[in-house]
Each structure stands twice: as C-alpha cells, then as structure tokens.
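thought: fold this chain, then report.
action: predict
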Amino acid sequence: VIFVFGLITWYRFFRINSMRIVGADKLRDLPQQGVLFVSNHQTYFADVVAMFHVFNASLSGRDNSIKNVSYLLNPKLNIYYVAAKETMHSGLLPKILAYGGAITVERTWRSQGKDVTEKREVNPNDTENIRIALEDGWVITFPQGTTKSFKPVRKGTAHIIKQYRPIVVPIVIDGFRRSFDKKGLRLKKKGIQQSFVIKKPLEIDYDNDTIEQIVEKVEFAIEQHSSFLKVVPAEEVVN
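observation:
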C-alpha cells in the first residue's frame, strides 16, 4: 500500500507542486520506537501522505528532499497515524489507505461532520492501540482533531503524552489546503509551494507538567496557539 500510493502521490508533491522541507535530518537521530509526531492539520489524507514521503526519504539519506522516489522501495513499515474511524470508513479508498498504518479512533466531540452536544466516553481500546503502536514504532497525530486552523489541541493528546512518555516531535505544514481539496485526494491548484518543517523534540517534564501545560506546549510548537492569530491572513483562519 505504501509503495503503490507513494508512487501515485509523489508526482503531485514533487512535480505538479513543490515542497520546501526543513529539519528532516532530525529524523535520523530519533529512536526506532516511542516517537509521537504532532502536527497541524490541513487535509484529511495529503498531510499524512506527505509525512510518509518525507520520513522515508530522510531515512534513506536524503537531506530535505523527496527527489528520486526509489526510497519507496524500502519504506519504514512501523509508521502509524491516528485517524477518525468515521473518516477511514467513508469509502473504498480510505479503507484501502487504512492498511497503510491507520490507528482508527472514535472522536468523542464530533460525529458525521458535526459537533456533538454530549461528549462520548473515550474508548479505552483506542488509547491502548496508540500505546501498542508507540511501542512498535512512530505515531503521527493531529492533536486538534480538525483541519480548521487555530482550534484548540485536544487534551486526549496531552494525556497520551503524559501517560506513555514518547519523544514528541512537532511538525508545521502549510500550503496543503491550497493544493488539495479538503480530503486531500483531489488536486485543486498547481504550482503551490508547500512547506514542511520538522522541529526539535519538545522538552516535557512528564512527572510535573500538567495536562494544560502540555497542551499549551503543543499548541505553540505546531503554531496553532491563539497568539499566532494576529500574524495569519484571515482567509487561512476561515479555511
């Protein structure tokens, strides 16, 4: 699945549009397990597909580039990503993409594209699956739980960080919502330079930091804290 969809999507990221990658060399210093990547979110699928490209290209020795798609011949297979169960069950293609490493979870605050008035209980199987994935490899999560900008980071991510103590690596992406439709499957515009910035791991005191403090650290790291609003164009916030 990774190889086939990697070949299909590579042309979109490297030829039709371009990607400015910063900090990919940091990936080679990370352990093979116990790493949690936190990122802002702009499309359902294009964001995580880009991460698979950047991660595997870097691990194959490329510095901030996905040039030469041969890195897909030997991909890192223990990369997982957290996705809403209803999204991954929304059609044949998402169901196929789920085989690429999806950890499907039930969102407690949203259902069928709408916020729910009464939040549901967290399914303990969901957090257990994330723990298992962290013990096996790398996990990607979008802690805001939505593609809308500047929505608060969900406390569930902070609880996972505090309980399982992964190395937390922030990623900041941009340009994906201009390039693709909301699902990230249909190309919307050509010639867009997307950006993909990998930052150094967060400094977290797992014993003494509160959930609120961890939430704030993540919001600042992925540049989605409310203080960033004043420097972002209005159309980016609306979208």
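thought: worth noting. The longest strand covers residues 167-174.
final: tokens above.
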